[in-house]
Amino acid sequence: MKKGLFALLSLILVVALAACGNKNTGDNSAASSDDKGTETKPVTITVGATAVPHAEILKHIQPALEKEGVKLEIKEFSDYVQPNVQTFQKQLDANFFQHKPYLDDENSTRNMDLVPVVAVHVEPLGAYSKKHKSIDELPDGAVVGIPNDKTNGGRALSLLAKNGLIKLKEDNMIKATVKDIVENPKNIKIKESDAAMLPRQLSEFDLAVINTNYALDAGIDPLKDALFMEDKDNPYANILVARPDNKDSDAIKKLAAALTSDDVKKFIEDKYKGAVIPAF
């Protein structure tokens, strides 16, 4: 009797251990499934951009990127300093608002090492006025506003020189300053101001040279309202910018591919009608 009871208890113990073993196998399978789920979970990247056209272009590609496993978050800025600073400090994964001459100057000035990833579009710089319909109407001593950052300031001065308002020491001086003006037949007075503020201050000037993104954001139509603009062929293509540690990541590569797709080219051409030009 005791032997029979012992055998029965032993059998129950074996069955219980087998059940526990099966339960553990199930847990491991679930963990494996979770691991696979983690691998396929969308990667989130945050990109800093000025509102128009950069953020608009980024918003356009959000659905396509999400299908590729990249969730794109966009942080909008109204200035040209913080997007680079925050990218360098890893508060952002990348940014999209600037051209390479500006990036080069910022890297040098602020001791950063941000890198260009891909060129997306060109925004020809334009000159605008609420007081005059042509540059021939500009009076002697006219006040002309230009961006106060080095590269866009030099770019603006080069544009004024190309249209005969001033003459510089050299043609197309990217880093020209007012000290490089050698001829000023109309005695125009150059006033430097924050690039983002120039559209709002336009009525204060006889003429202001404004970045296209800020012009568009202020409801100014570059093709209709500009007295003159840069040529389409210029070295100021706006670029996607990242860091050396993440520029070759899968997410950044997918973002770069989306920004230079046929779909984005058509979007730029249809929406901005020549005020913004694809650079690819």
UniProtKB/TrEMBL annotation:
Q: Which InterPro entries match?
A: Lipoprotein_NlpA, RecA_monomer-monomer_interface
Cite the PROSITE patterns for this sequence. PROKAR_LIPOPROTEIN, RECA_3
Does this entry carry the keyword tRNA-binding?
no
Q: How does it sit in the membrane?
A: Lipid-anchor
The residues the entry assigns to the signal sequence are 1-18
Q: Which domain of life is it from?
A: Bacteria
Alphabetical list of NCBIfam families matching this protein: MetQ/NlpA family lipoprotein (TIGR00363)
Q: Which family does it belong to?
A: Belongs to the nlpA lipoprotein family.
Q: Output this protein's name.
A: Lipoprotein
Q: Which organism is it from?
A: Paenibacillus chibensis
